């Protein structure tokens, strides 16, 4: 599937609303701010392979804000790779800032709030990859989001060129299902290799191999202990054989804390359980992810996702009926 969407044939007064719908259809729901001038222009060439959607995006200056409430109401669970070709995009997520400009790319997680500011006209290739496809190849994707990666040399250069080539030829590729699936798998494999390569983060933010391994162990331990309401940073540090001070420093480098990482992991697991079985009692789900109090769980869930657990269950039921 491929095609073109453009504002050229849209009346000036209707372009803002039109472009907001385009962004939501091809990416995710955001609060989109366009300049007051009605001379906004945007064009998007899109194509889709199994597990991989590619769009060539060109637009006048604008900015976008993705809120937790947007993610809570979305059935999509994707990550976006921005391969800038011209202009700049300033990105903020997980306490980090990055600038996607020509010769770089940046990964953004649609399930985590982010800010995107585009101060000038831009031309960017966007690859949308499902979380399932990428997380099966890369552990702890939060380590790699909102980091500027140089695509001028080495493996990142290969990934950028490969994605661009697929985008240009996607109309011819899509006719063969097997060929399309094979190319999609290759592209996602290359992207995963690029993310975990030692040079994947820019100089000052580059984690050492030891720290990366420790973070992976920490995330894995958290996932294994979500059902224990007594599991806390002290027990996490002890299970890893490191001090609490070092544990806090480790999470600070990725814009988080051990306590918030544990809480967010509990809530993420709860949301997955609600989506999988929306008829389960909320109290049972809360206890299964380590919350002793259902009311505390409900408050924490709404603070993270913008909706209550019951409302989230209702959304999941409606989505299941529609599908």
From TrEMBL:
Which GO-annotated molecular functions does the record name?
DNA-binding transcription factor activity; sequence-specific DNA binding
**Entry keyword annotation includes DNA-binding:** yes
Can the keyword Nucleus be found in this entry's annotation?
no
* Alphabetical keyword list: DNA-binding, Transcription, Transcription regulation
Coiled-coil annotated spans: none
Query: What residue ranges are annotated as transmembrane?
Result: none
**Pfam families attached to this UniProt entry:** AraC_binding_2, HTH_18
Residue span(s) of domain HTH araC/xylS-type: 216-315
Q: What protein does this entry describe?
A: Transcriptional activator NphR
């Amino acid at each position: 599937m491929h095609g073109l969407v453009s504002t050229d044939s849209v009346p000036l007064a209707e372009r803002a609303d039109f472009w907001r719908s385009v962004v939501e259809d091809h990416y995710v729901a955001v609060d989109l701010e366009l300049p007051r001038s009605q001379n906004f222009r945007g064009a998007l060439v899109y194509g889709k392979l199994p597990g991989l959607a590619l769009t060539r995006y060109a637009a006048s200056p604008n900015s976008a804000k993705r809120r937790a409430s947007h993610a809570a109401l979305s059935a999509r669970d994707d990550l976006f790779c921005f391969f800038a070709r011209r202009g700049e995009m300033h990105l903020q997520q997980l306490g980090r800032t990055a600038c996607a400009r020509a010769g770089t790319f940046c990964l953004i997680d649609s399930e985590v709030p982010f800010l995107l500011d585009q101060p000038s006209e831009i031309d960017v290739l966007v690859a949308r990859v499902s979380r399932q496809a990428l997380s099966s190849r890369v552990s702890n994707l939060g380590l790699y989001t909102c980091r500027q990666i140089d695509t001028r040399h080495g493996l990142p250069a290969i990934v950028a060129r490969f994605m661009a080539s697929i985008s240009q030829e996607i109309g011819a590729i899509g006719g063969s299902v097997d060929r399309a699936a094979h190319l999609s798998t290759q592209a996602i494999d290359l992207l995963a290799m690029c993310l975990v390569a030692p040079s994947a983060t820019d100089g000052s933010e580059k984690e050492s191999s030891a720290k990366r391994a420790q973070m992976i162990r920490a995330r894995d331990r958290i996932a294994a202990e979500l059902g224990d309401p007594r599991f806390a940073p002290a027990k996490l540090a002890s299970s890893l054989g490191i001090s609490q001070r070092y544990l806090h420093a480790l999470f600070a480098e990725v814009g988080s804390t051990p306590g918030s990482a544990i809480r967010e992991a509990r809530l993420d697991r709860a949301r997955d359980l609600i989506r999988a079985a929306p008829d389960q009692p909320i109290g049972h789900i809360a206890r299964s992810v380590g919350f002793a109090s259902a009311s505390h769980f409900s408050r924490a869930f709404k603070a993270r996702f913008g909706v209550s657990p019951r409302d989230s269950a209702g959304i999941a039921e409606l989505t299941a009926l529609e599908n």
